[in-house]
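pasting for ref
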Amino acid sequence: MALITDVKRICDRLADAGWQTLMLKHGLSIKHMSESALASALNEAVDVDKTIPGFEDFVANQAKGIEPGNPAASLLYHAFASPNVSRVPDQSTPLGALSQAITEFPTLEELDTIANYIYAMTNRSLADVRQHAADLLATDIGTVELAVAVFASEYRPAPETPHQRYADLCHSRTGTARVGTANAIYDGELRGYIPFREGDSQNMIRVLPCYYSTWIAVRSRAQESRFGPARARPGDETRDFWVPVHKLFNGDECLKDETIDIDFSIHHENKKLERLHQRMEDAGFPSGFSAAERQQSPFINAQGLIEGLAIFQGGSCLLSPQPQPLVARASFNNAPLTFQSPPMQGAFYDAFSPTLSFNEPEGPPVRPWPEYAHVRFEVDNGRTVYFGNRPDVVGKATEGGYRALNIADFTGDGWIKATVPALDSLDSIPAYSLIAAPDFFPAVDQREVYEWWSEIQDQSTLSTQPPWLRQLVLGGYWDFWRAGPIPLSDERSAPNITLANAAFREDDNTVTAIVTALQDINLLQPKPAVPTTARHAALPDAAAGVFAPGWDTSGDRIPGGATHLSAYGLGSPFPEDAKLCAALSTFWPAVAPDTERTFFGDQSSSPQGTGTVCPLTDQENGATDGSVSWDGLRGPRVITENSSRTTVRYPIYEYADYTFNALEGRFSIAATKDIDFQEYTSRILATLRMYRTLESVGNKTSLHILSFQKLESTNISLREAQSETGRSLSGPVYRFDVFDDSNATRLPPSAVDEEDFTVDLIYTLLIGTSDFLLAMARRGDGSQARSRWQLLDF
């Protein structure tokens, strides 16, 4: 079947859902009686109306529906693939333009089909592809090195591309799928997968697949005006990148005089338990299992991680993790799988007891085994007992000397390789595939947070910011991260070269870079201001690039060799590390929530404390009655506020067991999934202003955010404050209720896992985007005495 037949079928299905009306506004009709008529229409140049929402970042003012070999310059592909195209302009009014929602959207496979048609229309042979690459790289054709390579791919708005000049199809040889408890759901309007949809149960987390496509790629040193990479790193001018040149797909339209048939092979594994047991053996604590047994499941899980590889008709594929509980009790030969829990000394340390922590041999990123392990289940004569809720949990875990139950997760890493018999003269370069923990902020990416934080410090940018923001930066408040939001795409390490049959090389250190297809990029073209995506991104700029031990992947080193990425150095299981990272003030920004304020004590090893960076609201951390928190805990809350005193209650950090909560199915993404980049950064700024305002009261270690809320304009306290001061705050407006250590008294314990305090003085701050904020202090002794609301210039 000719590709134009499939393209017509797609256009026919979508035309009456609003697409024909939309495309006609550019002068392009997609509703035709015949395939030849559609092909002719798609080959005609039209004037692009870039005032229509979603088309502001289209590459050109005039374009064809299909531009051979160039998805970004193909008007039809941009319209169908851009997540910013979702409405049809209707009518202009004095109060603004009216628009209608598009009611049907292309599937991912349909977008892949149209991309195939774009490259089919080049009518290139393999020799033509080689010449095309030589021309763009301005090099002799004899020096052009081509290969068949697999890439994770996404069509992105301009701000998320390497060049940031126009929307483009972006690629990386590393893709990230994410585990979950339920099947994947594709959101056509977002052109991507989402971890939660309305109607799902509160504790459901959907798996997030990753789309991979196969290309003829060329090896090249970094070239900003040809492909990138995104956020080029020092030394990239001497590093080799594989760059897509021509998309491969099944059939005889892909390459002239060739019939292409793509066959995929894949391998993924989770070796955390095997590495953990090996480390115990090496440290003098016999595993109880032979080396041969430790090569079996669940020590090495190579079968139960992915649901399968969905192969599109054209030959691209979709890798989806197996929907299953986030963690599970491990068993071997129908018995609980255990290991000897050691005393936390020597090769192990007790800083995070009752979590077992492993000393690494040489520091990040080298982690040959999981850095953390769960040890709160004791197995004795086949009987499993949980002691995480006992008063002596820390002492027992620190002392060790019992058989601890292994808890398995279903994260891992692996490879995807394409074999194309018709192109067997070319090497086949696999993609590095991550199956990672959930991203609790799917609408926020590491890269955009990092660029926002970095760019504000630039003097040319800082000079345009409001006075209060300039004061934060110049006053020493801007270095607030516990670990900077460096994206994995900035990392220059080899993929996991220990993976069987991958043929990854130590010097293949650009595998996580993000590039475009090879093209002529006009760097003089201005960068358009358009919305970024609110969907989860599967490319590595949405993953974490700090390995302590990491969130999406970690690192290791072959003895005497270079460092490489690997997943087995992460926590065993991942919630054990998630607890530590979250308590350390969003240690991995844009994926891990910040729970520093959830606990009374500051968990930072820094003498100054890190404080809260991006707080969760009372609803998001479970403090509000009836709310479902992301981690299964209840946040700090007032339990009594009467004529005698104010009493607040906190969960105790040592008794917070994320692995147990994951076993019980208590994790949730429902409350955090809609926090986007604007909301995320607004919370950071408001929190910094709060700390600066109260610096005469306390510091980040002594101040406690008891309550954090985002206020509606009708909120009683907001209206009262604005009435008393005669000034109105611009939004978004957040309310902080804060007290200092000096105003709190610990009460006798009422429960093993919670602690209560009386609070004598509470400061309430209302902070928006205005050059001032509103503040009030109130007594907690039952007198209900309070100050009037004050206007402060902070």
